[in-house]
Every structure is written in structure tokens, then in C-alpha cells.
Amino acid sequence: MPSRIFSSGAFSRELWDICSTSLGCPFRLLPCTLQGLLRSGSPLCAYSLLRGRKCPTSTVLCLTKGTHFEGALVQERKTFHAVLSCVKALVVLLAALFSVGASSSLVHAADSGLSIDISVFDQVVVNGTTERQPVPGVTVLVKTEAGVAVGEFVTGTGTGTVSVPVPEKAGYTVELVLSSLPSGMSLIDENKAIAVITKDAFTTSNKKVTFFTGSVGESGASAFERIAQRFADGVRLGLVIAMCSVGLSLIFGTTGLTNFAHGEMVAFGGLTMFLFNVTLGIPLLIAAPFVVAIGGLFGLAINGLVFAKLRNRGIGLVSQLVVSVGLSIMLRNIFLYQFGGRTKPFGDFSMQTAKSFGPVSMTPRDLTTAILSLIVLIAVALFLSRSRTGKAVRAVSDNPTLASSTGIDTQKIIRIVWFAGGALATLGGIFRGLDEQVGFDMGSKLIFLMFAGITLGGLGSAYGALIGGFFVGILVEMASLVVPAELKAAPALFILIVVLIVRPQGILGRKQRVG
């Protein structure tokens, strides 16, 4: 029989046709289960059963799972293993770099376990009720009793808080730089711009210092200004959530996996950028493209070393979900061990003062990240709608079996999706680190908001993830106008429950037959 090469997803049906007509071919006597797999076009399970078997036919078949029939022997493609070996080497290299980063942290005080948590809140009275809103972008100076500078720090967006590690229980002074306050805002008592901390004040490992702006009994900002500020913060958060959610949604669409470890890809991005920028001293703008590429390879490694192997063995989706939860916990604890439990700022763009844009205050850094996030999301949307690969990604996400039968290499598309998902999550982690500082749990704080976004937009839909994530970000920040800041994520998770009850397929999702 002449040699034939197939690259389409229908190769297993053609393999069955060849083997069923070849006299003396042992594949004719295969068990009913394998016959059904070949007839239905299930290359993965067919490969696992056929590996190592021999057939007298001279058939050469290219399989979509990185395998091929050559010389009548089922074997794995060597190039796939070469790529996998490179990915493994990258993981080992990153582990070594993280070990170096942990031993040469920005401040040796990180090993002491002591910190000063500094917060700045705008305190106003609205309709007889005192409200406190966090004030981001405020600079504070921390010094020892002897006047030696510990460092200059900036409060984070959304929390108005910065955690400052200190070397020992001793006396410190914390000074709020009045000129860094947003325009029109001042301390209630400017004589309290400097807080003195004594050694005895460290009754626990964390000492809290809070500064209040505004005037008791008066509203420092109108209702319109507060709504506008929260909306602007929500837009920035929504753009980051949307960026991180696209990969999560496409991974679900192409593989059916609900990946709870996706949040750790976000944390990986922020922590890797911290390693490059602070520990290795590489400017953030130069390091960013390399970190994003490393994040993509990290996603590819997770797929190749964990989930691809589970799929190859026919492990169910529920079991894969449990594995993703375990992987998430493992990675989070590795990050905690290597980097510690405190948030840390990047070396670049951390000391900026908020500027007023009408009723909205925003640092140039926050404005830039918002614009870049919007550009990235537009580029992703155009890629999915205009490019050939993007259309293939959408096709596999909508119906993997049908896409495979039309000749699309589904396994290649799955690898592309994991790489792109890791890269986008890494970029989101960098932007989030610029906004909120870097922490080991920065991804786990976003994962349920990402799930809320893709559920609202439609599971498996890339465009749904963009719309849903954007809406969830706005909802979270706007909720702080009516609920305490600690509970602002609750309304978004409530929406998640309501959507699952009322419209499980989401805004852009399609109804599917169950059973």
C-alpha cells in the first residue's frame, strides 16, 4: 500500500479505513473500544492504545497529538520532546533565579517578619454618615530613631495602604509628604503629618499607622466626584481582569478545563518582573517583553508537564479541576516561601504623585497602564477576528471535535492558547503590580473576579471574557460607594451566582444540550 500522510483531525477515521481493508493487519482485530475510537476520530485515546504496536502496512500518518505512524511503528515525534525539554530547562532556570531573588531581597528586613502598615484615608461625612475612602499615590517616608532612612514608599491604588518591612523592633518615624496629596486634599490635622512609633508599640509583628484627610463634618468631594473616581478606578481594574480572563476562558473552551491555577500565572508575572527589575536591576520597560515571553512559556510548561499528560491518560475534567486547585496551592506557597508575605513595589515608576483630570485623580503610571491595557485588548480582539490562527482558536473553542474534523490541528491550537493565556496573565500581573504592588497572593485575589467575568460574558467565549471582565471591574469599584471597602468584591460574586441561575451560558454564550 502506498505511503499516505494525513494532517487533518479526521486521520483516525482514515486509519481505520486503511487497516480494516489490509489483509493480515492486526488492527482489524482490535477490541471494540479501540475500533470505536478510530471510527469517531479520537486520536488521543487511539494513540495511547496503539503506541508500540506494529502493522505490516507502509502507512505514514501525522497525528495531531505530536505523534506519527512511521515504518508501521507508533512512536512519539522527537521534535515535541525537544521542545518539552527546553521548557523543562526554562522552569529549572527560573527556579534558580527565584532562589537568587529570595536571597538578595530589596530590604534585608524582609527576614525579620516585622512591618509597618501605613494607610491614608479620606474621611468625610455624607448624609450624616462618616465614610472613609482610600487615597492612593501618597508618598510616605520611614526613618529610624537615629534619622537613617528606611525608604520612601507610595500607598497603593484601591487600598490606600503600603506595607513597609523593618529590620527590628525599634523606634521609627513615619512622615506623610503633604505635597504628594491629591489636589484639593489635606490632612485633618497637618501637625499629625509625622507619626512616631516606639519600640514598645510593636506588640505584634505588624504596626499600623493611619493618616486621615478631609474635614470632619464636611464632604471633601461631591457625590459626582466620588462616583467619577470610583468609575475610573473600576475601568482600570476591569481592563486588567479582562486581559487576564481571556486566556482562562479560551483554555476552558479548548480543553474544558476550569483552571484555578490561572491566578498564579498572574502572580508569576508580577513576581518575575520584580525579580528582573529590583533584584537584577533591569529597567522595567526593557524587561517587560522578556517577562511576558517567559510567562507564555510558563503557561506552555504547565500544559505540557501537567494537563496535557492528564488529557493523554483520559483523566476526567473534574479530576483535572482538582489538580488545578492543588497546583494553585503549591505555586502560591512556593511564591510565599521565596518572596515573603509582604507586598513590594517595583523599582521603576513607584514614586509618582496623582494628578487631577477633571473630577478624577490618577497617577501618570495608572493612566499609562490603562491605555496599554486597552491597546492590548483591542489587539487581542482583532487577532481573534481577523487572523487565520485567531479564527482557528475560536473554532476550537466553540467546538473542538468539529474543528478537528475540518483539518485544524487542535493540539497546536491548545498550545497556542496556553502560551497566549500565560503571556496575557503575566502582563496583567505586571500592570497589577504597578497598581497595587507585588505580592505572593496577588493572583488568588483576582481569580474569582476572573471567573465572575467569564461566567457573565459566557464560558469559553473570548469576547465574553473581555466584556464580562470589564463589567466586573467597574462593579467592584463602584460597590465601594455603598458597601465597606472590605466587601466590595461581594456584589460581583453575587452577580456570578445570579447569572449561573438565570442565564448559565452568559451574555455571549450559547445554550448547550446536557446529557
Description of the structure:
With 515 residues, this protein is of the alpha+beta class. It has helices at residues 11-20, 32-40, 43-50, 78-103, 223-255, 262-279, 284-312, 317-339, 364-386, 388-398, 400-405, 410-436, 444-457, 462-479, 490-502, and strands at residues 61-62, 67-70, 73-76, 114-126, 129-134, 139-144, 149-154, 161-166, 172-176, 194-197, 206-213, 355-357, 360-362. The protein starts with 10 loop residues before the first helix and ends in a 13-residue tail after the last helix. 46% of the residues are buried. Mean pLDDT is 75; it is low at 1-79 and 100-111.
% residues in beta strands: 5-15%
Question: Are there runs of 5+ residues with pLDDT below 50, and where?
Answer: 1-79, 100-111
Q: Which word captures the global form?
A: globular
Quaternary structure of the protein = single chain
Instruction: Give the N-to-C terminal Cα separation.
Output: 42 Å
Number of helices: 15
What's the number of structural domains?
Answer: 3
Average pLDDT value?
Answer: 75
CATH topology of the largest domain: ABC transporter involved in vitamin B12 uptake, BtuC
- CATH architecture label of the largest domain: Orthogonal Bundle
CATH class of the largest domain: Mainly Alpha
Number of strands: 13
Gyration radius (Cα, Å) is: 27 Å
How can the largest sheet be summarized?
4 strands, mixed
Estimate percent helicity. 40-55%
Order of helices and strands: HHHEEEHEEEEEEEEHHHHEEHHHHHHH
Kindly name the structural category: alpha+beta
Summarize the model shown.
The protein is of the alpha+beta class. 52% of the residues lie in helices and 14% in strands. The two termini are 42 Å apart.
